[in-house]
Amino acid sequence: MEEIKVNIDGEEHSVQVEELEDGKLRVMLEGSVFDIETKQDIKEEIIEEKSKKGEEEGVVVAPLPGTVASISKKVGDKVKKGTSILKLVAMKMENDIKSNKDGVIKEIKIKKNDTVNKGDILVIVD
């Protein structure tokens, strides 16, 4: 447990902070206990939800941040689940981004050399 000083509405307070096993924080302030999530935790949950939703709806999202190295399909191309659609370079490694369902490429939201973040929508398969 770590003790830190925080400023709340212009007043300085001493709080005790403990990191929990699930990555959340337990903050104790003047006898009250709060279990909180950081903005990063919430952002990761949103990205995870977006990825799960995408799999159901044919939305292909970036699994990690990187740069689009090449796009091997175009709008109107038929694809099978597992077909490579584009290559994403991250940490000097080329990652094959594949269709998550059988269908037709409806929309490509990126272009070669674009930088993407984890969770960004890349392609829509209908």
Descriptive report:
The protein is of the alpha+beta class. The protein folds into 2 domains: 2-36, no CATH class; 58-125, OB fold (Dihydrolipoamide Acetyltransferase, E2P), CATH 2.40.50.100. It contains 1 helix and 12 strands. The protein has one helix spanning 39-57; strands spanning 2-8, 11-19, 25-29, 32-36, 59-61, 66-71, 78-79, 84-90, 93-98, 103-108, 115-116, 121-125. The strands form 3 sheets. Strands 1-2-3-4 form a 4-stranded antiparallel sheet, with no helix packed on it. Strands 5-12-10-7 form a 4-stranded antiparallel sheet. The longest helix has 19 residues, at 39-57. The model has no long low-confidence stretch (mean pLDDT 85).
What general form does the structure show? Answer: elongated
- Poorly predicted residue ranges: none
State which percent range the strand residues make up: over 45%
What is the average per-residue confidence, as pLDDT, rounded to a whole number?
85
Backbone CA Rg: 21 Å
CATH class of the largest domain: Mainly Beta
- Termini gap: 50 Å
Q: Helical percent range? A: 10-25%
Number of strands: 12
CATH topology type of the largest domain: OB fold (Dihydrolipoamide Acetyltransferase, E2P)
Question: What structural class do the secondary elements suggest?
Answer: alpha+beta
CATH architecture descriptor of the largest domain? Beta Barrel
Strand order of the largest sheet: 1-2-3-4
Number of domains: 2
Per CATH, the superfamily of the largest domain is: RNA polymerase II/Efflux pump adaptor protein, barrel-sandwich hybrid domain
Number of helices: 1
Q: Give the helices and strands as they follow along the chain.
A: EEEEHEEEEEEEE
**Major sheet description:** 4 strands, antiparallel
